[in-house]
Structures are given as C-alpha cells and as structure tokens.
Amino acid sequence: MSDADGQERTEDATARKREQAREKGQVPRSRELASVAVLVSGAVGLMWFGEGLSSALGRIMTRMFTLSREEVFDVHLLLMVITNAIWEVFLPLVIILVFLFTAALIGAAGLGGVRFSSEAAMPKLSKMNPLSGLKRMFGSQSWVELIKSILKVGLVASVAGYLIYSSLDDFFQLSIETFPANYFHALDILLNFVLLICCSLLVVVVIDVPYQIWHFSDQLKMTKQEIKDEYKDSEGKPEVKGRIRMLQREMAQRRMMADVPQADVVITNPEHYSVALRYDPKLDAAPIVIAKGGDHLALKIREIANKHNIDIVPAAPLARAIYYTTELEQQVPDGLFVAVAQVLAYVFQLKAYRRGKGQKPILSAAATDIPQELQH
C-alpha cells in the first residue's frame, strides 16, 4: 500500500523509476547464484589445479622435514628455505584464487550486472532502527530465506546420502588398496562428492533467480497517482504546457505579421483566409509563403497589407489551396505555380498601370484553375 494515499501498487514501474533505482544501486541480486558459482568453481578448480597445489605442499613438507643443522641455526639460510617454499606454492595457489575471484565476480554480476553507486554505500539510519530490523526479521523475505535454507539443507543431505550409498563399493575398495593408491582414490571420491553436491544447489539457483527478478519488480511497482505525478514532473503540467504553446503561437504570429510588409501580394478568400506571398527572382526559385491565417488572423494580415500598400487579390480557391498545402517559409507546390504566376503577373501589370503604363489588367481565369488533388 502507498504510504501517502493508500492506493495499491498495481502498476509496473516506469522506465524512469527503474533508472532511478539503478542509479541508487537497486538491482535484482541472487546470493544463491553468487554462492553456487563460487562453490562449483572452487570444486572444479581443485580438480583441475589441486594436483599441482598438493604436489607443491608435499615438496614443502619434505623439505621442511629434511633441514640440515646449518640451515636450522643459520637465519639467512632458513629464510631462503622459507622463501623458496613460498614461491613453490605461490603459483598454483594464485591460479586457484584467481579462478575463484573470477567466478565470484561473474556470479555476483550475473543478475543485475555491475553497478557502482555511492548512494548505496552511504550509511542509513533507517537500517539501524530496531523496529525496522524486527520487521525485516519477521517479514515475507525472511520467510523466503528460511524456506530456501531448509531446501538447501534437505537437498544437500539427500544428494550426500545418495552419493554415499552409491559409493559403498568404492569405500570398501579403499580398505584393501595400498598406500598411496588408496590416498589418491579417496581424494578423487571426495572431490567428486564436493562437485556433485555443489552442482545440486543449481536447483536452488533456478528457483531463486526468477523469484528475485519478480520480487524486485514487485518492490518497484507504483500507484496510479505516482505514475501521474511522474508524468507531470517529466512532461510538465498540462496547463503549463498549454500556456507555453499559446505563448509560442503568439510569438510565431508576431514574427509572421512582421514579415507581411515584405510580401508582393496577399491572396484572399475574402471571408476566411489570407495568404501573403513573396517572390524575389534573385533569391527565390519560386514564390514563398511568408504569412497565412484564417478568420481574425486573416483580417489582421489584410489590415497590415492595406497599411503598407500591398495588393490584395481575391482568389478563393487559390487562397484555400495555399493555406492547406504550404507551411510558412516554404515554396508553393508545383501544381499551383501557374495560378500563382497569373496572380503575380496581374499584380505587376497593375503596378505598371498605376504608373501610367499600359491598360488596366484583368485577372486571368487560370488564377482559379486549381488541380483536383490540391483543392480544399
């Protein structure tokens, strides 16, 4: 249950919650996996490298029991003997220890990976609270550990009993063998026992690893309110985001209105839409939409155009087509080139007529001839 609002933790943890847990060093771990990895590797290591280690120890014992009188009473000679003895056993011992260290590292990182967290290493007063300790002692996790311990003891005892029963003939054979054959035979039996008993604990690992993954996911579960709060924290509150979008639209509109005086023509559907076009043959490969809007914004574009003596051409089909197919600062589509060219030609002829050159132009019908796929 959630401490804050009493809601049940029924929702899977979000990616952000899992990442925060990893940063704190909270990852699924299986102590059984690490323990069994070390035990099995230790048994295998003794079987592979134990002969070299035992031979080295045998040579050391032989050397120590055959010290001469001079070596016993000469500190320097005795120190040399001890040093040689250490070097004799150093290499096989280091090989076994490195083998065990590698197995321990792989076993510990096999579930959850390698994570270093300074926060996890910091002391926590909550762990020193006796009440918290009692709660952990009698909690569900403690019962799980108790069941695992009972299972391990029962499993080891069963496997050991079976191995002893199945090896009775080998035990009887030891009594009639001569030294040192019986000695090596006994070691072989013992190492096989150790390896098989350690491998039997893999049954516990197979059970424990999925449980630890499930238990970790269950601990990270969240309430619906926690997910909503996390979404608000990461994405922002809806009202704040709405306010930001509104301010962004207002800024974009102000920039757009500031560009209207640069237009060569404003094409309108007199009731609803206005589109401002710029065409500079030296800069633009085709006419560019520098402003567009509907209803109140369309009226504002026309007001600015009138204030700066920009020609306004009513061409409803063309205005709608440009409004719906072209974004700001983009060229008009290829299918509208002919219609836009007729409008620009009309505007340029109209400007010449006002200067007293030529006759008053008439807008060509091609200005409203819009391809079917571009009509709106």
Fold and architecture overview:
The protein has two domains: 15-114 and 130-221, no CATH class; 258-374, secretion proteins EscU (name from scop, 3-Layer(aba) Sandwich), CATH 3.40.1690.10. The protein is mainly α and 376 residues long. The chain is built from 15 helices and four strands. The chain starts with 14 loop residues before the first helix and ends in a 22-residue tail after the last helix.
Give short descriptive properties of this protein:
mainly alpha, name from scop, 2 domains, 4-stranded mixed beta sheet, 15 helices, 6% strand
Give the tally of structural domains.
2
Number of helices: 15
Taken from the alpha-carbon principal axes, the silhouette is: elongated
Radius of gyration: 43 Å
Q: How big a fraction of the residues is strand?
A: 5-15%
Instruction: Report the uncertain regions.
Output: none
- What is the topology, as strand order, of the major beta sheet? 3-2-1-4
Give the structural class.
Answer: mainly alpha
Mean pLDDT: 81
Largest sheet: 4 strands, mixed
- Total strand count, please? 4
Distance, first to last CA: 56 Å
User: What is the N-to-C succession of helices and strands?
Assistant: HHHHHHHHHHHHEEEHEHH
Helix content: 55-70%
